[in-house]
Amino acid sequence: DVKVTQSSRYLVKRTGEKVFLECVQDMDHENMFWYRQDPGLGLRLIYFSYDVKMKEKGDIPEGYSVSREKKERFSLILESASTNQTSMYLCASETGSGNTIYFGEGSWLTVV
Amino acid sequence: QKEVEQNSGPLSVPEGAIASLNCTYSDRGSQSFFWYRQYSGKSPELIMSIYSNGDKEDGRFTAQLNKASQYVSLLIRDSQPSDSATYLCAVNNYGQNFVFGPGTRLSVLP
Question: What values do phi and psi take at B94, rounded to 5?
Answer without folding.
Answer: 65, 15
